[in-house]
Design brief:
The protein is of the alpha+beta class. The protein has helices spanning 12-30, 79-92, 106-125, and strands spanning 39-46, 49-56, 62-66, 72-73, 76-77, 95-102.
Length: 142
Amino acid sequence: MDAQGDTYVDDHHTVEDTGIVLGQTLDKALGDRKGIQRFGSALVPMDEALVLCAIDLSGRGNAFVQLPREGKVGTFDVELAAEFFRAFAANGRLTLHLQVLSGENKHHILEAAFKACAVALRQAIALVDRLAEEVSSTKGVL
């Protein structure tokens, strides 16, 4: 992906737009969401940092993100990570929980957050033979 934007102002719109496009791409790729595991979670360590990510490919876009809100990693404003994940979840129509369980180094925390999201997403999109023609849901069953 090659993203270009008004970074001469700041990186906010480019980061948010990247989350939007990746979320829309995921949503389109999932189609009717039949046959997928639907849920995924991961605990990812990165040196002293430990981040939890849980995903539900529910079709509803929500993000509950607890990441650092102040400071920079290089020239990147760390508060933009939360903006990326919110845009990704809303446009990917998934529920996303990200929580820092420990950590001090913002670079390690953000790296663990993105990797935890990737691992949890890999689980959630996994195909399940028994669900080949179904959406993983109990609605209308209980």
